[in-house]
Amino acid sequence: xxxxxxxxxxxxxxxxxxxxxxxxxxxxxRVAEARAAEALRRRRRKxxxxxxxxxxxxxAGTGIGIAVQDSRTTSNAPYVAPANADGxxxxxxxxxxxxxxxxxxxxxxxxxxxLEKSAGPAIQALADKGTYKIEYHMxxxxxxxxxxxxxxxxxNAAAAALNEGTATFKAFHDELYxxxxxxxxxxxxxxxxxxxxxxxxxxxxxxxxxxxVQDNTYGPWVTKVSDAFNTSGVTGTPTLKLxxxxxxxxxxxxxxxxxxxxxxxxxxxxxxx
Length: 273
Fold this sequence. Notes:
Oligomer: single chain
CATH topology of the largest domain: Glutaredoxin
């Protein structure tokens, strides 16, 4: 299935929640898709946005089918939040910084990856400099849209890294994006892959980290983080807000800003406070 990520010229591109193909020409297909969309809206109103049963629209020839996918990993473990988490938010940088950059991401989101590869070093550098602190608001909605559990598995592993420290989380976060598989492959849905990537972060792979990844220790926390994103009002990733105001971090053609351009965007936003 080809997943489309609209990139309107007047708005920055995002991976939208939910994502679906838009077939045309077949009236029955359009009706079926409309029914699927309405069913999803009803679930969202009930607070089950991209929850245990999420709808993915699958196009096959001239017909259309509805696939119900489990968007979360399961865990019998009690609720445990990783050390260094601020509720459902992950804070990187000086927690007392007077400015806050809110970053909304999904580890399976290819456009998040594009932005990370283009402006990521500058995003971190300004946090390290003290210009702002970063608040990461993570999502797993692509698991529901595309099927699988890669977003949730990656987020559980990231939580295990966060348990070791915020700098360790950030290093693992960067490794995930540096090695992001195609979004439709669900390549992150593998504890072996998580441990392989974690090995790239010095000192991260310990018995405690390995157990947390293999046992999905932070699965219940991942669910709460996902629920918080789903009720945040943000409908696509990546979304970046500086002190609550959304930043435009893509050109009119959909190209992510460079490091220098991102710094200029932040400087202009802060100058206009």
